[in-house]
Write a structure and sequence with these properties.
This protein is mostly helical. It has eight helices and two strands. It has a single domain, classed as dinb family like domain (Four Helix Bundle (Hemerythrin (Met), subunit A)), CATH 1.20.120. Helix 1 packs antiparallel against helix 5, helix 1 packs parallel to helix 8 and helix 2 packs parallel to helix 5.
C-alpha cells in the first residue's frame, strides 16, 4: 500500500493529538500552570501549561513551512513558551494564558498541521529545511524536520505531561 510522506507524518501527529487529549482529562484548570506536588514537596518540572503552550508553537510552524497560513498565535506565546523560556510555577494564574486559551491554540495548531501534512506532496517534503545550524544538520529536509516536530518532539513533551499527571496522583491516560 503506497502512502505519501505527509500522510505518514500526519498519522503520527494525529496519534499524538489523541494522546494529548487523553492526558488533559482530569487536569483541573487551577493546577494547569502549577508545578506538581507530592507528599508536600514540589517537583520543578514542566507543567501542562508550559508543555502544551510550547507544543502550540509547532503546528503553525509546520503549516508555514509547508506554504500555508496558520491561525495566528497570541503574541505572548512565543516569549512564554519558546525553547529558551523557563517553566515557572504560576500560583496566581498571572504568568501564563488560561488553560482554555493554551489548549485551543495547541489543538488548532495540530489540526491545521495534520491537514497541511496530508495535502503536502512528497516533492514539497523533500525540499530543504529552512532552519539554520544544528536543526539543519540534524534534519536536512522538510520531511525530516516535520517528522521530528510531529513525532519525537511532541511525544517527548507529552511524556513530561504524563509524568506531571502521575506525580499529581492522576491515573494513567
Amino acid at each position: 500500500m503506497a502512502r505519501s510522506i505527509g500522510n505518514s507524518i500526519a498519522d503520527s501527529l494525529a496519534l499524538s493529538l489523541d494522546y494529548a487529549n487523553r492526558l488533559l482529562k482530569e487536569v483541573p484548570s487551577d493546577r494547569f500552570a502549577r508545578f506538581a506536588t507530592v507528599g508536600g514537596s514540589t517537583v520543578e518540572s514542566n507543567h501542562p501549561a508550559f508543555v502544551l503552550g510550547h507544543l502550540a508553537l509547532y503546528g503553525p510552524r509546520i503549516v508555514s513551512q509547508l506554504g500555508g497560513t496558520p491561525t495566528p498565535l497570541p503574541a505572548a506565546f512565543e516569549k512564554a513558551f519558546s525553547k529558551d523560556a523557563a517553566c515557572t510555577d504560576d500560583p496566581t494564574g498571572t504568568i501564563y494564558p488560561a488553560m482554555s486559551e493554551v489548549v485551543k491554540a495547541f489543538r488548532t495548531g495540530c489540526e491545521e498541521a495534520i491537514a497541511a501534512l496530508r495535502s503536502a506532496s512528497d516533492d514539497t517534503l523533500q525540499k530543504p529545511n529552512p532552519a539554520e545550524g544544528r536543526m539543519l544538520e540534524l534534519f536536512p529536509t522538510l520531511a525530516s524536520v516535520q517528522t521530528f516536530y510531529a513525532g519525537g518532539h511532541m511525544m517527548m513533551h507529552l511524556g513530561q505531561l504524563s509524568a506531571w499527571r502521575r506525580i499529581e496522583g492522576m491515573k494513567p491516560a
